[in-house]
């Protein structure tokens, strides 16, 4: 509208100037005696009337154009507002639908999943409580049975659990082995050392591939005065030929390609108990399989092999391989926190 006024302003000024000049012409002619005054006044009145009519017409034109422009702006604004309101309504509808889905999901969780989760958590806590109690009982029985000092290396976690140690000590008492070999070293080496000292014979050879852990275990051995019973032997992991196997689920995989350096183990003969608790799982698939093929010729006839961590799929699978490759073996599954399988010769 402002642009229209700017365009018409020069025209209106020109028209007003021309009109003013035209109105003054009849009086000028009358003053010169060229036109009678009555006619001059009539002509000036007609000119003024014509100017007024033209001004009114111009004003009506401006009003008409202004109304048209306003109408266009109103329609445009109405369309924008309508589209905005429609979009907001659509968003509100989508948000309402999403909220309804969330409410339905929450309702399902409250009605189904949460009760199951609460039940599962309650069962897990009860199982953990029972397991903690069993480990405390096993720890207490071990201390009383072996009559050990007050400050003993802790069991559980990375170390063997008390219930596994109790199982091992029970077999040591029964077999009274002259040689116990442990794949791995740590707190369990100390506890087995006390078990052998109690029976008055035998020794433990703990095989360790890490220098740092070997030194730690040797320090514990010296602290407990078991140097004449427990030997920690360093045997780094070296490359071996891996095997390509197919799992029970049809998956093809390659076994671990490293195991203890056997050159450090050649003199171990007459093994009465073999505790397989290493190498670590990170070494590769079925990392502990090699223990039985390596030590089989050196086992006593009544020897017992204890395999730890049989709650793990890998340990159970390698135990199956042992049974297939050594049909004279039998296996007993023992209740233990991390799972334990005990292998021995049939009839032994």
UniProtKB/TrEMBL annotation:
Coiled-coil boundaries: 85-112
Gene3D superfamilies cross-referenced by the UniProt entry: Vaccinia Virus protein VP39 (3.40.50.150)
InterPro entries: SAM-dependent_MTases_sf
Annotated keywords: Coiled coil, Membrane, Transmembrane, Transmembrane helix
Keyword Transmembrane attached: yes
Membrane-spanning segments: 40-63
One Pfam family linked to the record: Methyltransf_24
Keyword Repeat annotated: no
PANTHER family reported for this sequence: PUTATIVE (AFU_ORTHOLOGUE AFUA_6G01830)-RELATED (PTHR43167:SF1)
Protein name (record): Uncharacterized protein
